[in-house]
Amino acid sequence: MTRIPTGNVRLKRAYEKPSADDGMRILIDRLWPRGLRKAEARVDRWMKELAPSTALRRWFGHDPARWTEFCRRYAQEVRSHAEAMQQLRRLARSHPITLIYSARDEKHNDAVALRTFLLRPLPGLVTRPRERREPRAVSESAIHRGIPK
Predict the structure, then answer these.
(1) pLDDT tens for residues 86-118?
(2) Which residues pair with 25 in a beta bridge?
């Protein structure tokens, strides 16, 4: 699997002004940011399926003391959306993307965690299904000659 260049995945609050170097702007919150017009946000894609569940978001409540446990639980949720995560990885490999979020805390939010998951793939996240191959049959005479059937 090809690594994603660190500089290809940026983070930005939804309320910050969009810039030309943002690349593709991807909103990753489940809810649209309050008071922000779609034209102002200039979001290219909204991937709410990668946002934390409502229950997880409410439990976390942006409490830094719950950050480690939030990341663990969020990683479990992201694993169940492997296809969406793979789409995001493909985008990030090919050109810069900016993950857009609305939280005030710039160090403890879903975008920070998701960026980490993108740059360091999660254990157990299947990125491509592997084909299972049956062993090839080898004839008795081929064994003696060292040639597969």
Answers:
(1) 999 999 999 999 999 999 999 999 999 999 999
(2) 98
DSSP 8-state symbol, 143: H
Q: Are 115 and 99 in contact (CB under 8 A)?
A: yes
Rg of the chain in Å (alpha carbons) = 21
SS3 track for 51-113: CCCHHHHHHHCCCHHHHHHHHHHHHHHHHCCHHHHHHHHHHHHHCCEEEEECCCCCCCCHHHH
In this prediction the pTM is 0.79
Q: Which long-range contacts (CB under 8 A, 24 or more apart) does 57-65 make?
A: 57/30, 57/110, 62/103, 62/104, 62/105, 62/108, 62/109, 64/105, 64/107, 64/108
Distance CA 102, CA 138 (A): 61
**CA dist., res. 132 & res. 16, Å (int):** 48
| Stated length of the chain | 149
Query: What is the identity of the amino acid at 62?
Result: H
